[in-house]
Amino acid sequence: GGKDRRSGLILTIPLCLEQTSMDELSVTLDYLLSIPSEKCKARGFTVIVDGRKSQWNVVKTVVLMLQNVVPAEVSLVCVVKPDEFWDKKVTHFCFWKEKDRLGFEVILVSANKLTRYIEPCQLTEDFGGTLTYDHMDWLNKRLVFEKFTKESTSLLDELALINNGSDKGTQQERERSIDLNFLPSVDPETVLQTGHELLSELQQRRFNGSDGGVSWSPMDDELLAQPQVMKLLDSLREQYTRYQEVCRQRSKRTQLEEIQQKVMQVVNWLEGPGSEQLRTQWGIGDSIRASQALQQKHEEIESQHSEWFAVYVELNQQIAALLNAGDEEDLVELKALQQQLSDVCYRQASQLEFRQNLLQAALEFHSVAQDLSQQLDGLLGMLCVDVAPADGASIQQTLKLLEEKLKSVDLGLQGLREKGQSLLDQISNQASWAYGKDVTIENKENVDHIQGVMEDMQLRKQRCEDMVDVRRLKMLQMVQLFKCEEDAAQAVEWLSELLDALLKTHIRLGDDAQETKVLLEKHRKFVDVAQSTYDYGRQLLQATVVLCQSLRCTSRSSGDTLPRLNRVWKQFTVTSEERVHRLETAVAFHSSAEKILQECPEQPESFNEVEQFDEIEAVGKSLLDRLTVPVIYPDGSEQYFGSPSDMASAAEHIRERMKLVSLKKQQLRQPEATTPES
């Protein structure tokens, strides 16, 4: 690392006690002399042969070998001899005499006198100098440099081959070249890192004196290594950048090919097995269970499609990322792949959605049809059961329930028609794409099934409506029958009440003829009311007979209502006749009595007939006797007018009137009497 006074490089050859191999030494010298530049070599070398630990013949051999190895570059050879050891042998071989033959000057010198020829600062401590030198450090750095140089040179050749291959004309040649030399033998990143570390070491290395003196610049071989390392690094970076671009293009092409392959896999499956699965599924089922089974099968098909749709989403994201990268040469191809993939996936997804909607509509249609069928069955069951209500209210309730069920059936049939029409519309739209096949025959079966279900429900509903009409008429007649029976029974009650009132309240016979006539007139009106009630009851009972004949049933109440009506009417008639007879007798009694009592005494000739008084007394006694006699009905039962006290009061009034008549009679028989008051 040191330099002589001519600025030539100093080459030190340390010899040791062991046998020195001249071949190895020659190779080592050749290597060391290859390190300096030609400019340095032109300044010559000063060689220091350290023979202090070696034999003279070895030293001589080494010096002679220098003639063959580096004769032109060596300007001075300093042989460092051991103290007083070679003095006797020097005369046998004088190097200075061989100067012309050797081509360089050889000097035998002691280590302490070596500074006469070389500055101490250029000598190491072994020769009494101050030059800092670590041979192992130099050797390690040199090995690193040699390794870097070898690896970088080899790597540059490989990268150049790869990069140049990528610049060939056709795509196939590029791919073939890249395939053969795609991976370098060493990692470019590692080599670059080693080079940067080596360059950093070479640029930062400084040598300081032992006394902290002025630092000395790096050795010439290191200065020479720096531009070599920098040049290699620049070349490596350039080739590695090109190589990265080649790898990026290759990766992009590989990725594009993988995407294209996956796209074709998705497209081929969707247009092949996927579409075939949908082609085989065209039915809608003929019941809820069948539609549910078809839905389950469709869900399995959707599950298989979902796996491919997931691949589609992933591929679409990859294609979008590549499109954002913006390579013009791949944009058209990527967009075409994306469009093809999207078209196929969206078309298949639309077919799956259409099929799902169709099956859902079919399930709803069959659900409505089943509900309607159950409603019709319930209505029919209700119509098939004979009506046996207890009264008119229960008939009205049953009729209301029947109407509600019929209305519910109407709404159900309307809903079925709406669902059926919607389903038919969807089926008609199926022909627009039809899974790539003619589905006319399959659609006809589905259409016939839907229309058949709706027609069957319409017929069943019509039959039920007809039966409801008949049942409604029958139930209305039954309501009328019950109403007639109730009104007839009410008429019997009214007539019974009239009879009861006649017996209990129609008691008075009047205080005079005028009042008795008024009572007689009121009684006739009372009888007219009873007659109207009886006639009304008879008419109602006749209507029940007609309704029973129409309904083909026997009335449960009219059988005893008519006898009851006739019985009460007969009792009323007998009682009324008795009442009329009593009132007429009372009228005759009061009229006769009043006529006699109102006659003046100055006309005695009008009372000559005694029979008139006797007749009045007979009528009065007959009336009193009749008041004590009960009314006897046709069935033999008896009934009195009013209470005994009421009858006693009426009889007392008759007796008072009879007493007046008797008194009048006596007055007329005694002419000597002056006045009635006397």
From TrEMBL:
GO molecular-function terms, A-Z: phosphatidylinositol-3,4-bisphosphate binding; phosphatidylinositol-3,5-bisphosphate binding; phosphatidylinositol-3-phosphate binding; phosphatidylinositol-4,5-bisphosphate binding; phosphatidylinositol-4-phosphate binding; phosphatidylinositol-5-phosphate binding
Keywords: Repeat
Stretches assigned to the CRAL-TRIO domain: 1-135
SUPFAM superfamilies: Spectrin repeat
Pfam family, one: Spectrin_SESTD1
PANTHER family in alphabetical order: SEC14 DOMAIN AND SPECTRIN REPEAT-CONTAINING PROTEIN 1
Family from the record: Belongs to the SOLO family.
Identification of the protein by name: SESD1 protein
Organism: Grallaria varia (variegated antpitta)
